[in-house]
Specification:
Blueprint lengths: L6 E5 L3 H12 L3 E5 L3 H11 L6 E3 L10 E4 L5 H14 L5 E4 L6 H4 L9 E6 L8 E6 L5 H13 L3 E4 L9 H17 L5 H16 L4 H8 L1 H11 L11 H8 L16 H28 L3
Parallel strand pairs: 1-2, 1-4, 2-3, 4-5, 5-6, 7-8
Antiparallel strand pairs: 6-7
Length: 300
Amino acid sequence: MREASLQAVVVGAGTMGTILAKLMAVRGVKVTVVDTNPQVLETSRMRVGIGTSICFATEWLGVERPDFVIESVTENVAVKQQVVAQIETYVADTTIIMTNTSGIPIDDIGSAMRLPQRFLGTHFFNPADIVPAVEVVPGSHTEAAVVQKACGWLARLGKRPAVLNTCVPGFVANRVQHAVMRECLSLLEKGVVEAEALDEIVQYSIGVRMALNGPFCQRDLNGLDTHLNIARYLYPDLDARQEPAVLLEEYVAQGRLGAKAGRGFYHWSDESRTQHQVRERESLQRIIEIATQQSNGDEP
């Protein structure tokens, strides 16, 4: 496979699929977006804008056989199973097929595949054109050479691929994120702190530090003995429930779905949501630049 002639197909023209296609095109990959819904495809085309070499198609006819395919349809295991099985009928046996799932087990999605050894998960984080990390998740049948090729391709896109040794529900990032949110919701329910104060504490303490050091590196710097001493008295008091927080269930039932609904933990207008998203993208880029510079120059 010659890097100069790398070709890819993105199946699913939603928000993530569109971002991934644009990211690849900017990096010199010849990419085609396939979606059976003409309206969704046209929306994707408009989001991409002029000046890109991306092709759009409602079916595979005429699509050149790619080196890589990324499935980026709705996060539903049955839908993904069907789409991935269909992809396999259109591509060569050497084509690597990836699923951009955020946590569905890879073997479940690839259960109907003829060649599951060329299938793996690549979990991009939103916004995928900015956030560097990608969780690379092999299935039980995935060949090591496929993982290696996928990582090389992701690095070409400017990403930092991180390979999991085994697939677990939610992978790594979502497990950590939900563990943190479980404790945050528990503190809110118990009246320990208000949402605004909790956000302030987390964002400007562990939040800013996590941008520069991962949790294990940070624990090394703090001292594992200190961490152990705190863990001994704190763990018994941490939330360990096996069901989602009642407060979260209530908010969703009330239609308090977050910024998209105008109300979650905070009140949102269309204007405030847009302004926040613009500022967040700009700030993310600066933070990632600083974190990358530190990481490249000061590896532990």
